[in-house]
Every structure is written in structure tokens, then in C-alpha cells.
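Anyone up for a design puzzle?
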């Protein structure tokens, strides 16, 4: 049995508390698997007096979180604070600079600074591991980095935000309001400190940019992700989608093609015969299409203390075993800066929902905008019920260029017939 891997733990909230509980519960098994014990030696958070439901008296408490980076007894720093910059980034830079291993669940920081941190880790010959940053407990980073490493990946896509999936599936099952269900997701510990990151698609975009970098060997390019969230999806949209044979899911898609790297997070209509349509609650699922392995589907708990701690501790076990390589599956200098693909060139079908005034000529105005932009309508449904003081019109388009749909919406911008903004959802092909 080797010497213990000594851990300094920053952040004792949902995930940090989960890590302590998991190491306590599975100590013997983990020691046998890692070939050595994994021991927390020091911890830090903001409030020393807070009751966290775990015994912290056995660990050294460090008031200055940044000091964990150079703690004399620590081999590895685990960062579970969050935030793209601030104390998390300071800790990452200083820990890696001090040649300490670094484990994090912080997708925001990796999306913004992943390349710099990977370079720093390589310069220091230190481990940088972040399995928990994408899709919670699902070993999708390991799956792509290691299991699928021999493949060229054509496309990676999936449900990457547990909070949104929880909200959409609750809205669907119970016909409840968005705000009420969000409060429930927050109470369960799924939501980010700023829940707008979840519901506006930013958190899923952080994760997508990390997955894309690993899948395609490109530098993380969060700024190139087109982002839309679920805030404006109505229960009526979900019901309409169901009547057409679809479920509404927030899906992140990354694809590499001749025009560059395409990355988008947006609510989609997912056909009922697609596995993503059956992913409910805070579950996440990622599909990767490899040129030799074919379609891989990774599915499991995407958020919460237990699943996320499971991924954090798996990284620690890898480090304890001495099994870690390049953070993004290849050395940082090999990652290319991909051009951003033009979404207008993409072809697909779309769902468009308008809330309109119930008056003569409105339908003709919308149909004319579609015709003038070259959008072919597959079906159009007008519902008599009032929504936002208007009438709901739902359109499903035939397959065509996305540019045409954008042009049709542009033609309708500012129309006096519309009540509120139209909603566009792509149909997962
Ligand atoms: P959390 O419950 O809000 O916990 C954050 C912890 O960080 C708290 O212990 C807090 O201290 C501490 N903290 C905050 N600001 C600090 C500062 N300036 N200096 C020192 N400590 C500070 O967050 P969480 O849900 O555990 O998430 C942690 C990380 O895991 C985030 O990057 C998140 O995106 C990621 N993640 C979370 C989940 C999930 O399901 N929750 C899943 C995957 C990834 P106090 O407790 O004293 O206030
Ligand atoms: N807020 C995130 C989610 C936590 O809801 O998926 C997991 O990354």
C-alpha cells in the first residue's frame, strides 16, 4: 500500500459536502482501487461556523482559501467553489504553478480558461482533471478522452443541464409553471449559484465547449457557442410539441464540418423515437458519433451531491494511481483554433410559435413572411385559447436552410400583430 494521496478541499457546499461523505462511506474500497488511501488534510470555505452535516473537526480549517494551493501537506487541490474567475481561478493558477494536482467541477472556469490551465498543467507536469464539470456523475470525459480516443468524432450532442431537464420534464408531466418548478430544482441543489446560468443555457454552453474541445481536438471556444435557454418555453409549447410527436429538451450540439466548428445550445423538439426524448428529471445524456465505434450514448445523473462527488473522487483515484494524461485528450499545443461555422448554412426543420392578436389578416401576414423568406410550411396550428392576451399559432417547417427561418422572423420583427416575442425551437434531426 502506497502513501496517502493528500487532498486540500476548497468549497464545502453541495458537491464539497458530497465528496467528504463519499470518501467516508467508501474509504476501504477506494483505498484498494487506488492502491493507496485518499485523505483530506485541509478544507476551506467562506463560513467556518456553518453546519454542513459532516464532521470537519478532523481536518485543518484554512481561512484563506488561496493558501490551500501551497499547503505543505497537500498533493492535490480540489476546487468546488465555482465561478469562472475570482478565487477558483486564483486557486487553479497557483496550485498548478506550485506543481500540485488540481481537480475541479467548475465548467465555467474551464470554458473560459481551460486552454491556459491545460498549458499550465503541462508546464508543471501536474494533473488537471475535471470529470465532474460535464454531465455530473456521467463519465463522459473519460469516455471520450480514453474509451473513444481512437475515433474521429463527427458530432457530439446531448442534454447537459439537469436543472433545465428537471424543469421541462416537470412542466410536461404536471403542467406546472416554470418559476415554481425552478424553485424546486434549486432546493434539490441542482441549480448554479446564479440560476440564470442554467435556464438561459449558459451552463450547458460551458459544458458543450469543453466536450467539443475533447471531441474535436480544438481549443475550448465558449464565445462561439450560440446560446438560447428555456425561459420562454410555455406549457402550451410542450403540449403542442407532444401532440406533434415530440418532447421539448434543451440540447447542446457541436459538430465539425467544412465550414468550421458549429456549437449551439437551444431548446429543441426531440422526436419520441429518439433516446433523448426519454431522458427525464435531472438526468443528462450525451451522444457521440465516432467513425469506427458508431453512436455512443452516455446517460446518468447530471447534477446533485452524490453523482457529482462520484466524478470528483474518480479523478482523485486516477491521480492516486498515477493515471492521467493530457486534460483535453491531447497536448494543449495540439489543440487547434477552429473557425466558427455559420449556422445559416445548416439545414433543418423548425418549430415556430407566435402569440398574435385575434384579428383579420394576421395568419396571412405570417404566411407571407414565410413565403418571402423561402420557408416551406409543413403544418400550421392555430389554437383559440388566449395566451398572453392573444392566440397561439404554431408552425412546423419543412427542412430548409436556417438562414431562411431567421429571415422570416426578421421580417416579422416589430409587427403590430404579434403579442410578445416568437419562440423558435429547432427539431432534432
Ligand atoms: P455551493 O453549494 O454553492 O457551494 C460552494 C462552496 O464554495 C460553499 O462551501 C461556499 O462557502 C464556498 N465559497 C463560495 N465563495 C467562496 C469564496 N469566495 N471563498 C471560499 N469559498 C467560497 O456550490 P456547488 O453546487 O457545490 O458547486 C460547486 C462547483 O461544482 C461549481 O463549480 C458548480 O458549477 C459545480 N457543479 C455543481 C453541481 C451540482 O449539482 N451542484 C454539479 C456539477 C458541477 P460557504 O458554504 O461557507 O458559503
Ligand atoms: N447546474 C448544473 C445543472 C449542475 O443543473 O446541470 C450540474 O452541472
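Challenge accepted. My sequence:
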Amino acid at each position: 500500500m502506497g502513501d496517502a494521496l493528500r487532498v486540500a478541499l476548497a468549497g464545502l457546499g453541495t458537491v464539497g459536502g458530497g465528496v467528504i461523505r463519499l470518501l467516508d462511506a467508501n474509504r476501504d474500497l477506494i483505498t484498494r482501487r487506488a492502491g493507496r488511501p485518499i485523505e483530506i488534510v485541509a478544507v476551506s470555505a467562506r463560513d467556518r461556523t456553518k453546519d454542513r452535516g459532516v464532521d470537519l473537526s478532523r481536518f485543518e480549517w484554512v481561512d484563506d482559501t488561496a493558501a490551500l494551493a501551497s499547503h505543505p501537506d497537500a498533493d492535490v487541490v480540489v476546487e468546488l467553489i465555482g465561478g469562472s474567475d475570482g478565487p477558483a481561478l486564483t486557486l487553479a493558477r497557483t496550485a498548478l504553478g506550485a506543481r500540485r494536482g488540481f481537480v475541479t467541477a467548475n465548467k465555467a472556469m474551464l470554458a473560459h480558461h481551460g486552454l491556459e490551465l491545460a498549458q499550465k498543467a503541462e508546464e508543471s507536469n501536474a494533473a488537471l482533471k475535471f470529470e465532474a464539470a460535464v454531465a455530473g456523475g456521467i463519465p463522459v470525459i473519460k469516455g471520450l478522452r480514453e474509451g473513444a480516443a481512437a475515433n474521429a468524432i463527427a458530432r457530439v450532442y446531448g442534454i447537459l443541464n439537469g436543472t433545465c431537464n428537471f424543469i421541462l420534464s416537470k412542466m410536461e408531466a404536471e403542467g406546472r409553471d416554470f418559476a415554481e418548478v425552478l424553485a424546486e430544482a434549486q432546493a434539490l441543489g441542482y441549480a448554479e449559484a446564479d440560476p440564470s446560468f442554467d435556464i438561459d443555457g449558459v451552463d450547458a454552453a460551458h459544458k458543450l465547449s469543453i466536450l467539443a474541445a475533447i471531441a474535436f481536438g480544438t481549443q475550448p471556444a465558449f464565445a462561439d457557442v450560440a446560446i438560447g435557454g428555456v425561459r420562454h418555453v410555455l406549457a402550451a409549447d410542450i403540449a403542442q410539441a407532444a401532440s406533434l410527436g415530440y418532447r421539448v429538451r434543451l440540447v447542446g450540439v457541436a459538430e465539425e464540418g467544412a465550414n468550421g466548428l458549429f456549437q449551439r445550445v437551444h431548446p429543441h423538439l426531440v422526436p419520441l423515437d429518439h433516446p433523448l426524448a426519454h431522458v427525464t428529471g435531472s438526468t443528462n445524456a450525451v451522444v457521440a458519433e465516432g467513425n469506427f465505434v458508431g453512436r455512443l450514448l452516455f446517460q446518468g445523473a447530471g447534477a446533485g451531491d452524490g453523482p457529482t462527488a462520484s466524478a470528483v473522487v474518480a479523478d482523485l483515484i486516477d491521480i492516486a494511481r498515477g493515471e492521467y494524461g493530457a486534460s483535453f485528450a491531447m497536448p494543449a499545443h495540439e489543440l487547434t483554433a477552429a473557425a466558427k461555422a455559420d449556422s445559416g448554412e445548416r439545414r433543418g426543420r423548425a418549430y415556430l410559435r407566435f402569440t398574435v392578436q385575434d384579428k383579420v389578416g394576421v395568419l396571412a401576414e405570417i404566411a407571407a413572411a414565410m413565403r418571402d423568406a423561402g420557408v416551406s410550411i409543413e403544418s400550421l396550428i392555430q389554437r383559440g385559447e388566449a395566451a398572453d392576451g392573444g392566440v397561439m399559432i404554431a408552425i412546423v417547417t419543412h427542412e430548409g436552410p436556417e438562414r431562411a427561418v431567421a429571415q422570416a422572423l426578421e421580417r416579422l420583427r416589430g409587427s403590430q400583430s404579434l403579442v410578445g416575442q416568437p419562440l423558435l425551437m429547432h427539431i432534432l434531426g
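A detail worth pointing out: DSSP finds 13 helices and 17 strands in the chain.
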